Queue: 3 jobs
Job 1
Amino acid sequence: MGIKNLIRRLKGYFVIRVKEVCLPYEIKLIKENRFEGQVAVVTGGSGVIGRAICYRLAAEGALVYVCGTNQERISSVVDEINAAGFSARPLVFNILEENSVRNAFNLVVRLSSKIDLLVCCAGGGAREKSCAFIEQDMNVVDSVLNVNLRGGILCTKEACKYMVSRGKGKIIIISSTVGLQGMPAYSEYAAAKAGLMAFVKSIAMELGKNGIRINCVTPGIVQRGSIDENQMERIKKTNWVNDYGKPEDISNMIAFLNSDEATFITGQNFVVDGGRSLGLKNN
């Protein structure tokens, strides 16, 4: 039956159920083709959250450029979106290399004439290399800062060049609750994500007069694969709504910020974490 397994009206929504090897998700559309004619660029588009964002934007009518460094992973996302009857294209480039970023954005404009939306979703922590900061290798620190902070800044700069000339555009940067509250052994990651929040505020003040809206979306724990019932219950206990974060929770916020309903919103940070960052929870 393909990727687009089911589209039907349900209580005023169009519901698209998307198959996922580890975790199925649903896309609920208030109306079809809300973003028809738009061109969206999504970095980190082959990751779990990035994939959900790409699929959501494409399902609402946008032409989505799925970006990353791994051709095979990007193509997989592009193929499933196109197989569903939506529009996506692969865009391979390295967000750490200025020429690579510049050439990629030039290509998008050359092929599609414009960029309406940039979503900076590429990033990540040191993972297995995470450790106490005084023991951390500065090469690891530089790597985390570059891929999260510098990469987001560089992509924003290139997108803005085209958006300013058109007098409109939207940019959404994905941060993390670690950037809000910090986390032991993830100091460099916290610094990078907090830096993105401050960057968004500054750029929003600079570019508002040019018709550009830039905001930040900060996810909490998002389920990225299959887990057992006990693990699920532990995740639920980390927040105040006793639930777990899903990729579509983040893509829902992206869709809202890209909609006409959000035109008077800029420079803000939207935390999507079930209230986890509100305060301590004992159980």
Job 2
Amino acid sequence: MSNWLIEQQIVISFLLLTLITLEAKAMKNLGAEVIYALWLLVPLLLIANNLPQDVITVDDKSIYRYIVEIGAATNTVNINFNWALLWLSGCLAILSLGAIAQWKIYRIAHFGSRKVELGIALPNTLTVVKNNQLSSPILSGIFKPTLLIPEGFHSQFSVRQQQLMINHELVHFHRGDNLYNLFALLFVAVFWFNPLTWLAYRAFRRSQELACDAAVLKQSTTEDQISYSKALVQCAERSLHSFSIYSPYGEKHTMFKRIINIQSPSKIKPALIGLSIALSSTLLASVAFANLAETAHSVDKPSMAIPVIRIEPKYPVEAARDNQEGSVILQFDITQDGSTDNIEVIESFPQQVFDKNAITALKQWTYKPRIQGGQAQIQSGLKVQLDFKLDKPYEGQTAINSSIEKI
């Protein structure tokens, strides 16, 4: 997992930096809705960057053979910090914070709230509730959304302000933004160690709110824009609670940007939109072609695959007690990072005696990956024979007495 995370950083960091810059500098020329749509490039790039890689298939019948003696020990000093544990701790911490924040909203929506009718045409699946802990409307839930409004919603805002604010939440509802927010939170949890991830998350949520504002005010009057801006300021002033890692009403920078964007509408340039689409398509195609596997190719006489870390299998206590010897032949793959994968026993003698210990040991072996064209390649179909011996090894008591070359 750690190696996969590192492999994604170059392309992901480049894309996130580009999107953050566009959100900050190109909003007026591209428009909020286009900027928001461009965030779809993040999952698409992850898919393109993880298409199947080239696989080297080993066609020869060589078996790499090692002797396992009773009492053998591996003197390996592990000085590497457990980065996987650190990553997992950060990932779980972020997911826990997100779950706690959403639980707070759920409690507000389902306990101490009362259903209301707004007198506005709403989707049948959308429930509206009032609660005195809120300062602004909030859309909660993914599969069964609930619209939460403040207790004094009708007295604090004019009728037109109420319509505009409800329309804003309905845009979120129809677009499925809460589901996108969940995916964004998962992305942050996975790549939390990259500072650009946090900046991108805030930029993404700002783009989301600005895109909703643009949809609501697409054919509005100047009076509507002024009224809507006043409502946003009033919500920001009354926002005392933060229900998620990012609050669209409590975060000052977002509120200022939303109001400025309302006062000075975007002057969209179609040529720039076309250019951004062309560049995005080129980026995705380049990454996809760079990672797309053409055909698995064979190697007739590969160089020896020598492990750089080899863990000695434990000699089974029962076998040692019964003075039993034997061998196991395993087939396995070497991944791009040098670890072993797809391990299976193809023959053993005696059967089921040494298999488990042999597999357990081979899972911990690390090989130097094969480099071709400057890129690590997957190697498949390699074989290793582990001979379990109590005394000096001799021929005749192995899994195979064959003509297959043993190294």
Job 3
Amino acid sequence: MRVRTKICGITRLEDVNSVVSLGADAIGFVFYPPSPRAVTPEQAKILLHAVPAYVQTVGLFVNASLEDILSTLAKAPVDILQFHGDESAQECAQIAKHVQRRWYKAIQMKPNLDIIAEIERYQDAGASAILLDAWHPELKGGTGHSFDWSTFPKLSIPLILAGGLNPQNIQQAIKQTQPFAVDVSGGVEVAKGIKDHQQIKMFMQGVHCGSAK
């Protein structure tokens, strides 16, 4: 089965067009104001109009309230919720049920974390997937760092690999972890929130080569 690709932290219309033309499966919008890649719901609404059918859109939220998520979705109705903060499994499930969206949880690979038990908590609550990212004591994603890929588990729930991916390492990352999907942001940028067409093209080529048997 081929590895899916999400390009996250999209802020410009030309980057939407580039990602779509190069064959990404999903586009991520960051609704977390402290992030340098954050967009407002109004900005995301404009970008969403350029996303064609069969390309999924994901909204990244960090410890957002139900009210904030409802307000965002009213203007920018993304397809899927990505919870990237300290949300419990129950909180994720309750919010997703209320807004009628599929969801998945990002988990940072913190040292000494029982990753299997942590994944199972969210899986049991109804997560469609789990994203595994590098741990940072302060940042919620977008660190540019990778984690030890040898710790990447093999489970029944779809697992998304993130953290420090770029055109140079993506092929090896896929061969080593065999994820359901990969998620990249800073690894295909020339500046925070500014994607580079050539780097995205090289990244997608690496995904295809890494997926090949």
